[in-house]
Amino acid sequence: MTTHFSTLLTKTEHQTFKPFKKQISQSNNKKSKKMSLFLLLALLLLPFITPSSQSSIRNLLEARGLPGGLFPDNVESYSLDVKTGELEVQLQNPCFARFENRVYFDSVIKANLSYGGLVGLQGLTQEELFLWLPVKGIAVNDSSSGLVLFDIGVAHKQISRSLFEDPPVCYPPGSIMEKIEKRKMDIQLQR
């Protein structure tokens, strides 16, 4: 047999505890209002928080006049300083990919993002005739041209924008797929 606490109290004791019940109820209402305000504020600020998924880096690049597939399919997160334009992209691991030629992405790629360009690029190299050259910048000077310009220091290389529409598949160094891609390139060079 269960007896509730309230049944053990006399009428006078109920009157004594009534103000405390009201205080507790008011305290819970204040907490509930604070929580509701916090949730509303979080929902309002959500669009201003920098997203970190592959689709969001793609959206960011496209909003800045660049093709969405400049970074590989293994983007883990990114950060952008909106005041300075400094972009840092974190990959799950360093990897090889292929646009027109093979490229190598470090696990962290840094650049200064502006409309139509990534300048001061660090963490991306491109293979040119058995040499690995650092890509110093990527630009789209005229979006109607259908070309993306790669600055590899000693030269500027124009590559079809269509190669950058989707993020490239990226293979970790030493993986079977990376070796297959390298072999494909070697065969093409022998022709």
TrEMBL record:
It comes from the Eukaryota. Signal peptide: none annotated. This is DUF538 family protein. It comes from Brassica rapa subsp. trilocularis. The gene is A01p041120.1_BraROA.
